[in-house]
Amino acid sequence: MAIVVEEEQSRGVSSGVVSILVWLLILGIIAAAVYYVFFAEPEFITITAPEDFAATEITARADIDPQAVLGDPRFTNLRDYVTPPPPGSFGRSNPFLGFEPPAALLKR
After folding, report:
1. What pTM did the predictor assign?
2. CB 71 within 8 A of CB 78
């Protein structure tokens, strides 16, 4: 004896047309996405340079000799006002261990 789990669906003309239209819509969306991702030429944004951009062009073309800068007395007379941090241990030896409560809280 067989147990029927599904009911038979009536296959009318309208349900076949609707399913074909849904599949065509899905395929159209996929085709449009593939076209725009792989084949379409991107539109470039035209940006005009600011008016004072010419000043940066002068700086970009400047010839800078690193040895002349490093050997300049104004550069060598500069002092470092920030002291480096003292050496020491930072963090925990094993950062993956759990946290233990302080001993003062355990005595309560």
Report:
1. 0.35
2. no
